[in-house]
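Researcher: Good morning. I'm working through a list of sequences from a screen, and I'd like to move beyond sequence-only analysis. For each chain I'm collecting a predicted structure so we can compare shapes side by side. This is the next one on the list. No need for commentary yet; just the structure.
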Amino acid sequence: MKKTARLLALLAVALLVPQAGCNDPLRVTIPFIVPPDALADSAALATIRAGVIGDFAIAYSGDHPDGSGGVGEGVIMYGGLLADEWVNSETFPTRIEVDARTIAVTNADVDLWYRLLHRARRSAEVAAARYAAVADADPGHAEVLALEGYTYIFFAETFCSGVPVSTLNADGTITYGQPLSRDSLLARAIARFDAAIAVTTDPDITSLASVGKGRALVDDSNFTAAATAVAAVPTSFSYASEHSENTSRQENGVFNGNAIDIRYSAADAEGANGFPFRGVADPRTTQVLNGVGFDQSTDQWNQLRYGSRKAGVTVATGVEARLIEAEAALQADTTTGTAAFYTALNDPRANAAARSYFDPNPSSAGAGAPIGVLPNLTATDATNAGGAINLLFNERARWLWLTAHRLGDLRRLIRQYGRAANAVFPTGPYFKPNFPSYGPDVNIPVPVTEQNNPNFTACLNRLP
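Model: Good morning. Structure tokens for this chain:
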């Protein structure tokens, strides 16, 4: 599996910290925050890049859930909780609201998650400007542009329409943004990906940006352009947000929130309409029962995709590129699929590198062996799945499990394929006493703290 190294950049931060006191134990320099003027030239770019990668990792996969000693959860956790990848196995009413699809704008955890995502966006934005000023052609410039693009995708796929994008200025003032529609957020994402592709020829970074662009175009129903965007991405490609056990902040928050903090339990057929992640056996979505969760009552199912605190978390892959091509081909025949549809779906099933995504850290405790060859899919599989659309989204659910795609996919099934919300989202009686049944939410509202922005009052709409 091809992965871009991340932790070397973090080492650069440590090397910049003064080492005073090594020879004289009575003279100790107190560590300090790096001042802005120390980041003004190209020598500081490694530090700046490391900060962007760290902020992105927190927004994407988090380190520990709120209440368990970390910074917070990422979009993989809360997006998957509103969708059907996780169920709540603890007691925080704020997370129960999300799981039950009944989210108040005053939800404090939503506010935390929202801030972390904006922090990652702004961190990447500032870094991109710094690179543009002193090292425009450096691959790090394209990388931070691409990561900024992904933050816009996460806003578009996770939150309601109407997310404002504000700017904290150097003098401490705020330039407040206007509420942006989903399409406007996606347009900003595509612009960042195009900018990234324009400033580098590094194959890993261009693939990262190309998959991101394809994803945004699919969200925008531009399937043909999406397939074109990802055509050159090899199936073996993978860009991972890497983690380590050096500090809590660097740990894999998906593993922690599930297996260590036991506040999230891996789901199966949640609310009757949820996907059968373990009900239909598949090596890509393997789970194991591990007693009960933090609430001492909910079955605690642990995912095995990420097997330790240091396991990497895939952000973009060549598998996703093939799935995007399959969906573009599907538009010609949404019932049985075309030959091109099956060619794209079957490519990663026979690709060893693609299958190894499910063992991102094979030396770690708890990580499973790479999955074996998966049999080719045919029109018979589409029939058995209830149609080619179902077959495609079944494949997406398993290949992209726990990578912050599922909520966006459920919303697309409603918006682009005409499904009813309660036919794709968990529905019916809710399993905790906080709510008698699942609510109607298909996205997360912009939190009430955004009302400090004079341009914002509420979501433009809560449509999928």
